[in-house]
Each structure stands twice: as C-alpha cells, then as structure tokens.
Amino acid sequence: MDRKKLNYSLLIAGPLSILLAYGFINGEIHWSNPNGRPIGQRLAYSQDPEEASESEQYYQTMTLYRQEPITINGIAQLKTDQTYYYNAERGDIQEVYVTDGQVIKKGQPLFKYNEQKAVYELEDTRREQTRLYNQRERLIDQLSEMTGNAYNWQGDLIEGYWTEDGYQYYVSVPIGKGEYVNKPVNPPVMDESGELVAPPEDGSADGIKDQIRTLNQQIEDIDIKVARMLKDQDSQVVAKTDGKVILNQDGKTDSQVPFIRVISEDISVTGSVSEYEFYALGEDRPVNLYVDAEDRDVTGTMIHYDKIPKVSPRSDESNEPMYNASQGSSGTQYGFTVKADEFIQPGFTVKVQIGLPGYVIPTDAIVYEGEKTFIYTVQDGVAVKKEIKLERQGVKQVVLRGVEEGEVVILYPYDVKEGQTIQVMDNAEFDQFDMEGMDYDGH
C-alpha cells in the first residue's frame, strides 16, 4: 500500500484574524465537496463550517510518497549448469584435461574418448574412397587416350586458349554423374552393398563416360560419409560455457553419474509474477533480495523477464497458442531473472523486493482540460498548477516525472485557482492511506 498522508487545507482568502476567532470543538465535520460527495473525518479540533466566513473554503490534500515495493518469492540458482556424462558407445575415456575446482573457458577441452572402433571404421571407408578415386582416374586417362581430348579430374571435357596470363581452361562439356547417358542393353545392377555396378566395358568412349558418371555418384556419396564420420569421431568433449569444474571420478565409467559439471560463479534468482504484478517487471531494474535462511540482505538487478507468457504444446492441431498458466486461480505467470550482486547458496528461497517507479495520483486530484491532465500542488503556501502525464501500473495511475516526494497535492481542486493562498492544517494525518478505501462518513 502506498504511504500517504491526509491533511485538511484551509484556503485563506480573507484576513487571518478571522481564523483565530473560531473556538475549538470535538466532533465530525460533514459538508459537501464540489462533486456532491460528503467528506467526513474525525478531528481533534477544527472550525465549524456553519460559522466560518463565506470567503473561506476547506480542501483535502495528500502528500506524495514513493510507492512501497512489492515482494515476490524467488529461488537462487546457478546462472549456468552444464552436465557431461560418460557415453559407453564412444569407447572408454582416455584422457581428462581438467581438474576439480578449475575455472575454464567456453570451448576448452574437458576429456577425450578412446574411440578405436570408430577409428577402424573410418580407415576402412577411406580405403574404399581411395579405390574409387583411383578407378575414376584410370578411366579418365583411358578416355583421353581414346579421344585425344583433355578432361578434368571428374571427366568433364575441357578446352583452353592462350592469354597474357598463360593458357586458360574451361569446361566445354560437363560429364555429369549418376544415370547412364548411353543406355546399356542390360539394365544396371546393384552389388551387395547397394552400390551401382558399372556395365561391362564396350570399349567405346561413350561406355567409358557412363562408367565415370557412375563413379562420380559413388564418390560423392562416400565423401559425405567420410565427412560425417570425421565429425562423429571427434573424440574430444569441450565445454559449452565458462565456469567452474566439478569432477566426479565415479562418472568416468558410470553413465548414470555426472562425470563433469561446469557451473557458473554467478548466481541468478528466478521467480514469476501474475498478470496483476506484471507492471512491476523491467530490465535493468534494481531490486533488493532478502535471504531468509541467513537473515541477509543482498542487492541485485533484474536482467530478464518474459514479455509474453510461455506457450505450452497443444495436443490438437489448432493454431491458437495455449499459454503456460500455473495450476489454481493464479492465472498466467511471467518469469523473471535477477542477477545477485553477492553469492547466495543455490536452492535457497529469496524474497525479491521490486521497487516501483512513479507516484500514485488519486483520481480525485486530477483535472482534465481537453487531452491534457493537471494537478494542483501547494508550494510555499500557494496553489501551483502542474501538467502531468499519467501512466498506468496495473489498476493504478502514476506519474513518473514532474513531481517530487513530499509534495502536497490538493484533492477535489475544482474551484482552485493557480496562485491562491493555501494553508495546510495537519490536524488529520494518516499513514498508509488508501484513497479508494476512504470512509467518507468518518468511520
């Protein structure tokens, strides 16, 4: 609840001596403000408006204070926590490059597998790759001798011309790959491995070209296979993030136990708010953290929050998203992350106090003139008219700039003129007063 003070102000339009002529009474004051609503507040003393001079009017005022922060429950977590397990399919772990407690950087090697089976498979595939390359090279040489033409490494017909930079080559007729251009009498067959078997050589140039095309397709396939095996055979496991190493030797041979964890030294506090507190979230917003288990206060900064609620997967084919709402009546939740300035034990519950910017302005203090909004404040005993820009925070209207803490705002200023003399009477003062819950009958 916003901290506010409620005062009664006396508009002095006549001589001050008239004020001193009133006696003191105990009771309630009841009179109507310009919008017809009765105002009542029990006072220790006041003047009876029935006996007051017609040149005097009473006004209600409110002192502006900063909004009270809202408190949300959160939990301390490691900012990053990467876990690495032993994978028996990749072989035994041959070498470990890090030690327990070591601080490492992203991309730094952690350990290495002894993947002997994968090494053997790669060697066999490379031998097969070499045989195909050699076979194609022999056929291209044979074709060149038969036709007297020049061919490049994959059998394309090339021609050339002289320039100042020397003899330049270009492909005049590409040979292609895969299908036979000159259809053999017998259809092509596959061997046991599923590869296309070249037809018997007919001794002609066209027959040799068909064999080269088949080899080009086979070589393309085996090149892709080798590249994939090289990628899979990379026996080194590297760190995905910066952090501190937690090494458990039991995980070196047990795939159920984490072998290496790389944890960040930064602590994040995470939590969520409902739609009614969403307005309190903001990036780079300073927050206060209270660690209940240690009775300790820590400062922090909100570094991220959900702009829209997370979407849960749907079981049907509807294009409408299903937002992630928590169970019960709390409705949709919006997560946030706070970076703590000091270490907090991961797993500890933390109370996150989020300060709210701006000052709450009661509706009864606002004067509308066209599209502009104004309030009247009391400065040095006179009424000052200020233009303000209202922004909504949940169900409240606030002003972020143009006013200061401690300023006195006049409520129901319908007949107030700028520059009028105002004297604030502090005979009715309340802390934590809610304007929407005000009892106008004095109870």
UniProtKB/TrEMBL annotation:
Residues 205-232 form a coiled coil. Residues 82-262 form the YknX-like barrel-sandwich hybrid domain. Pfam families: BSH_YknX, YknX_C. Signal peptide: none annotated. It comes from the Bacteria. One of its GO terms (cellular component) is efflux pump complex. Keywords: Coiled coil. GO terms for molecular function: efflux transmembrane transporter activity. Transmembrane segments: none annotated. Residues 309-329 are annotated as: Disordered. Residues 360-424 form the YknX-like C-terminal permuted SH3-like domain. InterPro entries: BSH_YknX-like, YknX-like_C. This is Uncharacterized protein. It comes from Falseniella ignava.
